[in-house]
Design goal:
Radius of gyration: 24 Å
CATH topology of the largest domain: Protocatechuate 3,4-Dioxygenase, subunit A
CATH superfamily of the largest domain: Aromatic compound dioxygenase
Number of strands: 11
Distance between the termini: 57 Å
Number of domains: 2
CATH class of the largest domain: Mainly Beta
Number of helices: 5
Organism: Pluteus cervinus
Oligomer: single chain
Bound molecules: 2-acetamido-2-deoxy-beta-D-glucopyranose
Keywords: Dioxygenase, Oxidoreductase
Protein name: Aromatic compound dioxygenase
Structural class: alpha+beta
Strand content: 15-25%
Shape: globular
CATH architecture of the largest domain: Sandwich
Largest sheet: 5 strands, mixed
Length: about 350
Amino acid sequence: MHILLSTLLLLSSYVSAHKEPKTPQEVEAQRALQAAAYHCAPAVAEFTLQRQRIFAQKVLAGRPSLPGYDDLFAEGAYLDENESGGTNQKLLSCVPVKETKIQNNTCVLTPVVTEGPYYHTQGHPIRQNIAELEPGLLLLLDIGVIDVETCKPLPNVLVDIWHANATGYYAGHPVPAPKLVNEQPQVGGKRAGLLSAFPRTDFEETFLRGAWPTDANGVAQFTTIYPGYYTGRATHIHAKVFPDWETLPNGTFKSHRMVHVGQFFFDDATNMKIDRMHPYTDNPIADTRGRTRNWRDSLNIFEDSLGPEKEYNPVFDLQFLGGVISQGLVGYITMAVNASADYPNYWSG
Ligand SMILES: *[C@@H]1O[C@H](CO)[C@@H](O)[C@H](O)[C@H]1NC(C)=O
Ligand SMILES: *[C@@H]1O[C@H](CO)[C@@H](O)[C@H](O)[C@H]1NC(C)=O
Ligand SMILES: *[C@@H]1O[C@H](CO)[C@@H](O)[C@H](O)[C@H]1NC(C)=O
Ligand SMILES: *[C@@H]1O[C@H](CO)[C@@H](O)[C@H](O)[C@H]1NC(C)=O
Ligand SMILES: *[C@@H]1O[C@H](CO)[C@@H](O)[C@H](O)[C@H]1NC(C)=O
């Protein structure tokens, strides 16, 4: 079967690479070949898809040729074998870690803050690599979820994330509303520093949006790019957590109960280094309004993410994937969620 298909394809490219068919026999031969190839297109597509899937399983999570990848993500790589007491300790059990593969603050919590204006209630694909064709610095995310009630990892909950591209735009929202093209940031008041949200004008784009269920260790890993900034906001990644969802035929999902909505941040020193890397340098506000630091984040979102007692850590713990920053970063964060909660699906603010 496969041999037949490749032969057909070879033959058709052979034919089309040659001079135009002239005689009626040649024309008929070409027509028949095209019809045959067309007829086989679904089978070819399926065959290709199968190979892509196999490749994707290995590659799309960022696996190829990254130094240290296996060490970083291998199950059990996080805990010293003696610290686990031979009890097959889970990643997120909050045991102090001696080895520095992850740091002490891995057991951090992020409270509930606004979902903002750029969530798409439907259409986020279920996938680990959300980068699509967006250029930027490779960023692997290792997002842990624990249940606040039991302090145990929560397997099989859907972690749904979305963030801006390297120059500060969300998929689906490429331009401001026509009337607001020359809008200036709000001065004073609750929305100080912000522009009105760009409306959704593109219903196809899905870049930098996606959801993936946590594994047995309560961890969901993603491959993406480091986000860019936009007017008024510190660099951040949004996340929601759903314990119940349905997969739709097109690979997206319909969610039910939501147990968490929050935002993750990056330390300003790293943000400002990355601001100087291409394509982050192309941010349209780089030379005008510039980046918003965490402490100046609008709507107090960064401050709120620290929690009422300022004891939460909403900032990714970042590590180099290679020897130099341009080889990419891995960011670890852990959310503590109330697994029995049920927040309304709109939490705008
Ligand atoms: C674990 O403990 C044993 C005995 O106490 C010791 O011999 C071994 O080196 C330890 N392993 C590690 C990885 O520290
Ligand atoms: C981790 O915590 C321990 C004990 O709380 C402390 O001694 C150590 O310096 C910390 N390590 C890091 C990398 O912060
Ligand atoms: C997938 O299907 C849902 C439900 O019909 C729809 O809302 C969504 O836009 C679709 N997404 C894509 C990427 O086609
Ligand atoms: C980010 O998205 C916007 C809007 O779609 C696009 O114009 C811009 O080129 C993208 N940034 C990069 C670095 O590709
Ligand atoms: C979790 O949510 C349930 C249901 O809303 C509530 O009764 C419980 O107090 C919450 N637990 C915590 C620790 O917030």
